[in-house]
User: What shape does this take?
Amino acid sequence: MPVDHFVAPENSLEPVRYDIIEMLHRAASDKSHPWRYPTVASVDQNGAPQARVMIVRDFDGTIPQIRVFTDARSPKFAELSANPDIQLVFYDPGAKLHLRASGTAKLHVRDDVTNACWNALPEFGRGDYLSRLPPGAAITSPEDALQDDSFGSENFAVIDIELTEADWLSLSANGHKRARLIWRDGKCEGRWITP
Ligand SMILES: Cc1cc2nc3c(=O)[nH]c(=O)nc-3n(C[C@H](O)[C@H](O)[C@H](O)COP(=O)(O)O)c2cc1C
Assistant: This one.
């Protein structure tokens, strides 16, 4: 949809934009927030969707950008290296707020960003990136999934997701509300759409 058709953010869409930014800030800082664990979808080499749950680790509302962590040997890392298109789905059943956010993934491995995030990770959080075999590799039994501490931060990857579009849906007995926002050239524009 051409961005020209969108209404300016200073009108009735501004509270929606504010709500999205606020919810994502809380998801990044509060482990019990319902938006903490979005479903994150990439596209594989055959063009098929691949979705999984991930943890929101950080959020920069000025870009806006969501940060997640993964293992650089995982299929999702290879998928996003080949095609950075990514989509996240959040739902808060209490607030009845659903968000489908699309964006572009920037991958970090063995750089300043991964070093800083790794150093801030508690010891128990590092084990997820220290498996002896790559994530998804076949093993005979769960006990064969050994950890190899000598890897250090070698396979630890940070994915920064710059949001380009958001489809926000608020469910209510008084009438659902839905809006689509687009971030482009540092500006956010949006419009109400039919729920
Ligand atoms: C609550 C929860 C949180 C998870 N968080 C992450 C995460 O932040 N990063 C990650 O790589 N995998 C995470 N996982 C594991 C993935 O959902 C999934 O099993 C795995 O990453 C699949 O990888 P693939 O899609 O690359 O094959 C999480 C799983 C659960 C259940």
About this structure: The chain has a mean pLDDT of 94. The chain has one domain: 3-193. The CA atoms of residues 169 and 178 lie 4 Å apart.
